[in-house]
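Internal QA ticket QA-208
Title: Verify multi-chain structure generation after dependency bump
Assignee: T.L.

Test input:
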Amino acid sequence: MSTALCPGSFDPPTNGHVDVIKRCLSIFDHVVVAIVANPFKSALFDSTERSAMLEELFEDESDRLEIHAFSGLLVDFARERKVDVIVKGLRAVSDFEYELQMAQMNESLAGINTLFLPTNPKYGYLSSSLVKEVARLGGSVEGLVPPLVVSALKERYA
Ligand code: PNS
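Actual output:
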């Protein structure tokens, strides 16, 4: 059985994240989504809220997908869960440099490989940070994030 690990901040999950996770589900038998509990920047949603959003978004796949918050090194979590590979979405060349560094560090720390999936071009400009900024300033984020995230953002910035 092949297991992929999709790590991220998911603050909040965007349609780009959903697309990458769905594509992982079409390639791998099992997918573990790892939500970093304490991202570098202070989070708008705590890890329980981010987990709950992802659980709801993927409730139909709950037999093949698990969602966990983690703290500490990603490679330690990856070892614990016995995943085969880390999968990261790449939006643009600007993502590549940092992602390559992390992939190489993770490989050197634990021998775990990272696969990059090119993001669907329709989500190429999307990021959780920009979505939060647009929502905070009263813009529409419909079509950028799933409807339940639209509602959560409206509530948070009300
Ligand atoms: O969605 P993001 O913010 O791009 O996700 C980044 C994430 C969570 C994958 C990365 O920051 C991470 O792996 N953090 C855990 C701590 C760790 O292992 N750091 C060393 C990375 S080489």
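Spot checks passed. Residues 3-156 form a domain with the Rossmann fold fold (CATH 3.40.50.620).
Status: verified.
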